[in-house]
Write a structure and sequence with these properties.
heterodimer; A: 9 strands; B: mainly alpha; 2 domains; 21 helices
């Protein structure tokens, strides 16, 4: 049992290390590749920031134009999921590509920023932690409600409880 | 008629048979099909499912058989028809849940709702395996479908896989049902490893009786909560709760009997044949389905450990201790896991009756597993 606890502790420490690890940022590299972690990169932009797991590219174009280009570039890619958020269009890879997401910023007029994020275990682990916790939340809510209904039954229908015990 | 014409006629006839396109992969699949038939007929190992699966594998792995493809006019052939409308359209897993609801008495869980936490804890493997599966080179959707195997819930595995990774359906289904059947072999060593003598003899209070109104309220409360929090799995949970409502209402005995017996038998036949038929050589004999069996085993082990760990954590907090030997039942392998808890408990104390407590944990698992599936499904919506 101690061994299990030890392994569990290492696992937790590893996850905390990944989730809480520092993000390394480098100075902007202005050269623009045609692909970044296999994700298409729209030409004509300037790389303003690079991190180990993300690249930020600025375009002097409105949001719609950039989105149209990406929709065309990804038209044959079936595993891309488009999420239309208030501040950006978030294109998420649900397949096996090396990129995780492409975020196209909204509301910048003729300036649009594209953020390409590399596939990373941080996302996988954090989403899993949240979803595992979610299962607990669902069953805990059910637990609470069953307790309430049980207590209510006892209080308001005591004769039924006695009948059930007699059976 | 010349000899050449006779020869051409002979060759032409031969071309319509299966011989010219037979290859070694077909032979491998026949062997796999016959193995399942052997396990079902001779060893009595999950015969209700393995027999139709085995014969389905055998049938479709002959070349040119018009069983699992589409006709020239685009209509699905016989087994493709069952597969398309039964599994791809997700009808069969939901009907199985209807039957399960009609057969299941949730009384142990209603009497001790604390057990729901064990059902949640036992989903640990689902999420750990998801990560491992991605590291093994699977896509996110494939990883989610493989991860759910550990919940030991066949219909949920089929439901999720049909939605996310239909090409892994046969491998995932077989892995899920195989590991459910191997509960004593897989779970017993983990239970021994993770518990000590003192914990194994913990006696739990006899469960209280549950009133008929509480039983009637359960499908409404549970169905409502799941519908609000994880709507993605309502086709499954809605049917489970509907089946249970029919049962506890006591006013539709004929419907309960139909859902629990003839309907269940019919969908089991179609399910088994369709899953078997989906195991065509060119789909099944690749590295991914073979890896699924290894990952599924890891998944089942972690889920079992997750259930036991959850009991231990609960015991740190509550006054009335729970016997950790029921933690394994947090996976929804009904009735194998609760039976194992009972046997293991009585091995250490002949007067210890854990069956109903383990049943409660198992029923919690049968809700926890679809909840986990819903959480995974919501990633893609």
């Amino acid at each position: 049992m101690k061994a299990v606890t030890f392994i569990y502790a290492i696992f937790l420490a590893w996850m905390i290390g990944i989730l809480g690890g520092p993000v390394q940022s480098r100075a902007a590299d202005t050269s623009l590749p045609s692909k970044q972690w296999e994700a298409p990169v729209m030409p004509g932009g300037i790389v303003v920031k690079t991190e180990d797991t993300a690249v930020y590219i600025n375009y002097d174009l409105p949001y719609e134009k950039v989105l149209d280009w990406y929709k065309d570039a990804l038209k044959n890619y079936k595993d891309g999921k488009y999420r239309d958020w208030a501040d950006q269009m978030y294109i998420e890879d649900q397949g096996g590509a090396k990129w995780h997401s492409i975020g196209i910023s909204k509301g910048g007029g003729n300036k649009t920023t594209v953020k390409i994020v590399k596939d990373n275990m941080t996302w996988v682990l954090s989403t899993l932690l949240i979803r595992f916790a979610g299962v607990f939340v669902v069953l805990c809510v059910l637990w609470v409600l069953l307790n309430i209904s049980g207590a209510a039954m006892k209080k308001f229908f005591p004769s039924e409880g006695a009948k059930a015990r007699a059976n | 008629m010349s000899w050449n014409e006779i020869w051409d006629l002979f060759i032409g006839t031969l071309q319509t048979t299966g011989f010219p396109t037979l290859n070694w992969q077909h032979a491998v699949m026949w062997a796999i099909g016959c193995f399942f038939l052997y396990m079902a007929i001779v060893k009595d190992f999950e015969p209700l499912l393995l027999l139709p699966i085995g014969f389905g594998i055998f049938l479709v792995n002959f070349p040119n058989t018009p069983l699992f493809g589409f006709s020239e006019t685009g209509h699905p052939q016989l087994l493709q028809f069952f597969y398309k409308y039964g599994i791809i359209w997700e009808v069969i897993p939901c009907l199985i849940f209807l039957g399960l609801g009609a057969m299941t008495d949730f009384e142990p869980l209603i009497a001790n709702p604390k057990m729901l936490l064990i059902g949640a804890g036992a989903q640990l493997g689902v999420f750990v395996t998801f990560t491992g599966t991605i590291l093994a080179g699977f896509t996110i959707k494939e990883a989610a479908s493989v991860g759910i195997i550990g919940g030991a819930d066949g219909p949920t595995t089929i439901y999720l896989t049909a939605k996310l990774a239909p090409h892994l359906l046969s491998a995932n289904t077989l892995a899920a049902y195989s590991y459910m059947s191997m509960v004593p072999i897989i779970q017993a060593p983990i239970m021994r490893l993770m518990t000590n003598d003192k914990e194994r003899v913990i006696k739990m209070k006899v469960l209280r009786k549950v009133s008929p109104t509480e039983k009637l309220l359960f499908p409404l409360i549970c169905g409502g909560i799941i519908a609000l929090l994880v709507p993605a799995v309502m086709p499954l949970m809605g049917m489970l709760m509907f089946g249970n409502l029919m049962r506890v209402s006591g006013v539709v005995k004929r419907l309960v009997d139909t859902a629990a017996n003839p309907l269940m038998d019919i969908v089991t036949i179609f399910l088994g044949l369709s899953v078997g038929a989906s195991m065509q050589a060119h789909v099944f004999l690749t590295y991914k389905p073979l890896l699924v069996f290894g990952l599924g085993l890891l998944d089942f082990v972690v889920c079992t450990a997750g259930g036991i760990l959850t009991v231990k954590i609960i015991n740190l907090i509550v006054k009335e201790k729970i016997n950790p030997l029921i933690g394994n039942s947090g996976v929804s392998a009904l009735p194998m896991s609760p039976r194992l808890s009972q046997i293991m408990g009585q091995r250490y104390d002949k007067k210890n009756y854990l069956l109903m407590h383990a049943m409660a944990a198992c029923l919690a698992g049968s809700i926890g597993s679809p909840a986990a599936a819903g959480m995974l499904l919501s990633m893609f919506e």
